[in-house]
Every structure is written in structure tokens, then in C-alpha cells.
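Feature request, filed as a ticket because there's no other form

It would be nice if the structure record came with a short human-readable summary line next to the C-alpha cells. Right now we just get the raw output. Example of a typical job, pasted below so the devs can see what we mean:
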Amino acid sequence: MEAILFKIINRYFKLFVCLNIILFCRCTDNYHNYDPNRLVVIDVGQGLSCLVQSQGDFWLLDAGGDSTLNWEKTLKQHHVKKLKGVLISHWHLDHYSGLTEIITAFPVDSLWYGPDNGYAYISKTLISTAQKQQIGTRKLQGPQNLQWNSLEAQVLWPQIHTNTAEGNPSSLVIRVGSPQHGWFLFTGDIGFAEEEQILIYNNSIESDILIVPHHGSGNSSSVAFVGAVNPFFAAISVGKNPWGLPRQEVLDRLQLVMGKSRKNDILRTDQKGDLHFLQVKHFGWTQETH
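Raw output as currently delivered:
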């Protein structure tokens, strides 16, 4: 009980300090020189796409959403002119539907993807299209690390020596941030079985922000997994859908682990629109209001 109480007090202290640092920077000339790393969980409807910014460069994690979404307009609204990399967690339409439009509209240095072979024709076609445009392509499996300027991207799943089913279970899971300044956890569409394996293969997955797996599907976000992440914020990318996502039992599990007083820190794109976060040095990721 004392350990849990300490964690809660420590989290609220970090949030208090973060907010004061941001307020100080906005109220002084330091604001013009203050360029923290940023994360935007973009409101793409029923799908997933997260935009990461570090030192003026951009990376996109997944590129799926409603068929009516104008990707060029959406990314330009976030000041994107070029992408250092695009990562596709797995080859389901709600995670890659905008890829062709994006690599046509913007210069892209790299395309990363996981071992999912569920839609081999689609994935091979898209990878081939990227290669024809001189975009570097690379399959990722853990344990593996990428360096995105001041951010480290840790590939936690799938592990290279594990056999995973096609589709959702093969989703790339990436932990992005740094030991000194906090992490966020990007989870694709993993379920209970993959969450259990991630806990076995990785010593620590604690992160300030959890991108809730599978849009809040009932067969993901176990109490054990969410507890190990110990998030300050839970971000759910979801739109109008026939499956009742996010499921109420998932919202209940998140609230159980995070605490009843943290209900407002469970954030949904269908209710809030784009979700903005920034990384404050030495104190972690916090929500940025617009």
C-alpha cells in the first residue's frame, strides 16, 4: 500500500512541476527557445496514427483512418513538410490506408514494418511502391532500438525468436522516449496473449502515456499489462464503429489501475479530437492543451 501511495504522490508531483515549467516558459522569452519533443495522437476516425516530433523532424506511427480523411491536409496542419520515417504496426486497413497518399505527397526517408504476413500481396505492393520512390524499407523485430534524434525507439514486440499469428498479434509495439525524460508506449492491435509475452520478454515497459491497444477492444489492456505500464495518460484512438469500441470493461480496467480520480486522464479521439502531448526534460510526458 505504501509503494502504491508513493507512486501516486510522485506522479502528481511530476505533473505539478511539468505544468509550472510549461507556464514559466510560456510567460518568458524562454518560450521561443523551448522546443520539447511532441506526440500527437491524430483524430483519424476509426484507425490509428501518431505523429512524433523531435528537433524539427517528424515520424509517423501507423497511417490508417476513415476513407474520407485527407492525409496531405491533415499532416500539413501539423506543420509536416517531410517525414523522417513511417512505421506500420501491421497490415490492416485501419493502420495503413493513408500510406500511398502520404508517400506520394511528402518526402519520406524510411518505411518500417513488422513481420505480419497476413496480407502479403498488399504489403509487398506498398513496400515495392516505397522502394521505387527511393524510400528505405526495413522489417523490425525486437529486441531492437532506433534513434530518432533525441528519442530512442525500442522495439518490444514481436521478438525475433517468437512465432506470432498473422494480423493483430504481429503488431509492432514500440516504446519511445528516454530513461531521463520519460516514455510513451505504442501498441498497435495486440491482445492479452501478446501483452503477457511482452511482460515476459521485457524488464520494464513503464511509460507516461499508453496508446491503448486495439482501439479499446475487450481482449486487450489486461490489468497486469496496464499496471506494468503504469501510465499517467491512456490515449484511445477510436471513431464511429460497429463493435462498441472502446469497450466499457476496458475503460473500467484502465480506471481500476489508474485510479478513480484519474478518469479525465483516459482520453479518446472521438471525444477530444487530436490528443497533444509534450515531453518535459527530467519530468516526462504531459498533456498539451490547445
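Something like this underneath would help us a lot:
The mean pLDDT is 91.
Residues 1-34 form one domain.
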